[in-house]
């Protein structure tokens, strides 16, 4: 609970309507897209501009009140759950697309801007911003930046980190910094821009960002390769990129259980008798090159044992396939009370081995795990359909995921490819970065946030307020 | 001077032959490629492996001895000059190319590996590592990483930062950390990899690196556009990339004074009656697309007022042109006792304005400044031919560069695009990042290096040991 004088100060910064601490507001911001994590904040605040963000942070810093920056809350690591209470700072009033600079191929915007709206604005002018998290219809660009969002085009085009070149950010002290700029090269001191991208709200609140844009590819082709043997599908991934040196813009893996629920929801004729499919897209400016790539990929798929390969006959059909893939999480969420999606990531050459391991581990712990994901990146999403009301099963699920993380690390991989550490994976971070890495990261955190007010309880493992579980 | 017991300890780590403190060794490592900066170290040490690096750092940390990591010393910011004495740690024994992983499209190597040798090893297998600093025949990959080297292909392919995905590094405490891996996506905690790239040896010593590789482009075309009007050349840059949305792999600007010395040295028939030339290259896998791009670029150049456009008739001719461009610094260095090369960088759309400003400033201070550089990136290299023996002239040169940095910042640019801050630009860093930015960077430095032993006197301005100037 915030004391009256602080509530008064906060209201005087943002105006009466933009600070809330009624029970409805507190409950609304007590959870995000992550299942089984909930904790009430002490207040919700909606700043209108950078000056307000700075004023709020100064007060929070003085009184040691936790501040949890939040966009649309679509993250899957409990990254915006206020596990230590405090103020949820909702950035949705700061949602302006400030500029698309055609000479410099950059766009500048506020963090609350919706990702899909940004894509559309950019694409209307013939430009291209590749990062396309599956949540993009709802998520915000600020959230994408704080989590370093990936998506289906990461293989060829990289992730959010590869595009952010300038930031305005407010430190917990209320000081405003500007990093980078409309610059493709800048080595003036340490790279604070890339450090802030993916920092999960634990270092600063970003209030403006500048990203690089690309010229939109003018042509693309989409195909489905279907497999009776799940490991043949996984092997195909290495073969296309490693041995044959083709980098498709999208190379997605979907196993049979995922296929079934996606088909059930989308009704687009996915082959239910297959053990796995690969959804492959190539894009670019030259039709002949892309057609040739797709033809080569078709051959490779068949060589590696695909039962069938189908080319999308139209842009609409291709779009339907991509949309179906993007719906995987939401459709899986419909078939069970609780759906836990992970993003263990391995070197691409280890995809087949990882798929085998996931299936073995699921069997060992008698839990139901579907797997889909960005196979070209080595970024898989093993997804467990379970029921949070069954603590015994949940315990087995936790053991299974723990073993999946361990396996990923063992294969030279990581505990999270694109979802972030948040509260969910904090206990496992040391497996990846070591004790010295954790100490270093804590010291960096301290450099930005000596009073530990920025999104406490995230990234670094520590005992947190007991979680309240809500069913959906 | 190191006391006997420490010298003894250091020798017992690396062996008698690999610690030196005779006058010849000390003088050899008292300077780098930066003119007018020199300072003697107290010793020079050549570790053979990571364990030796760790053992050396532990001793240095305990006794507060500065450690200056060094590759080939080709940097231009006095980044490897031991301004506070201490130990120069030369990495050239750790020069092994450990692995080229074809399945994962990565290469792993030790920091002392020569850049050109690495390029050749990669290219022999049909792969491509884009960063190509002009110093690459001499420079090391470790030096490239510590300075975040750019080069002629940065416009289309980015810089070193865009390729490094994993590091092994030794902290001043002697602890060894591993960041990233053979992973295209990894958001497990703060991005220590990108923070270390470009950190100029002030945070840690890297002992191993993993970089992404690309498939080599199979076709390229090179052209020269020649201008009687220097500003028409600068305008062409914006027009090609901004208005016509073509991103060439190389887009270099060379003004007449640079042209004259480059031609004098290379004798390849550059047009001495032109005020400026653009050297343009496009590459890729599809001949028709590249031919079409080059044809469009030719039109744009003529439209913007090029007096003449010439296509390279052969790969040899193209290679000669690129080699001539890369020789700009070394040829300019031949015509005057002292050559100071800078790398102020602006948003690409401001190139014409920046070229005008540089020429005006040179006139104002009556100094001789030639300008060439990576125009497509907005990364210019105004280069002053002067004489360090003339303090009055040197003072005017310093004033001129100060005004150039100020102008670059005013245009939304930065004080350094690819050479680093080092000792040379430390006094100007605050102009770019602000007082709050400096404080934050100092706190990050402290997080890694609480005893301030790692390459002290670099990045952050402070009174340094008086410099001894050597003529060349």
Automatic annotation (TrEMBL), chains A, B:
Its cofactor is FAD. It comes from the Bacteria. Gene3D superfamilies: 3.30.465.10, 3.30.70.2740, Vanillyl-alcohol Oxidase, Chain A, domain 4. InterPro entries: FAD-bd_oxidored_4_C (IPR004113), FAD-bd_PCMH (IPR016166), FAD-bd_PCMH-like_sf (IPR036318), FAD-bd_PCMH_sub2 (IPR016169), FAD-linked_Oxase-like_C (IPR016164), FAD-linked_OxidoTrans_Type4 (IPR051914), Oxid_FAD_bind_N (IPR006094), Vanillyl_alc_oxidase_C-sub2 (IPR016171). Keywords: FAD, Flavoprotein, Oxidoreductase. Residues 37-216 form the FAD-binding PCMH-type domain. GO terms for molecular function: FAD binding; oxidoreductase activity. Pfam families: FAD-oxidase_C, FAD_binding_4. The keyword Oxidoreductase applies. Belongs to the FAD-binding oxidoreductase/transferase type 4 family. This is Glycolate oxidase subunit GlcD. It comes from Paenibacillus rigui.
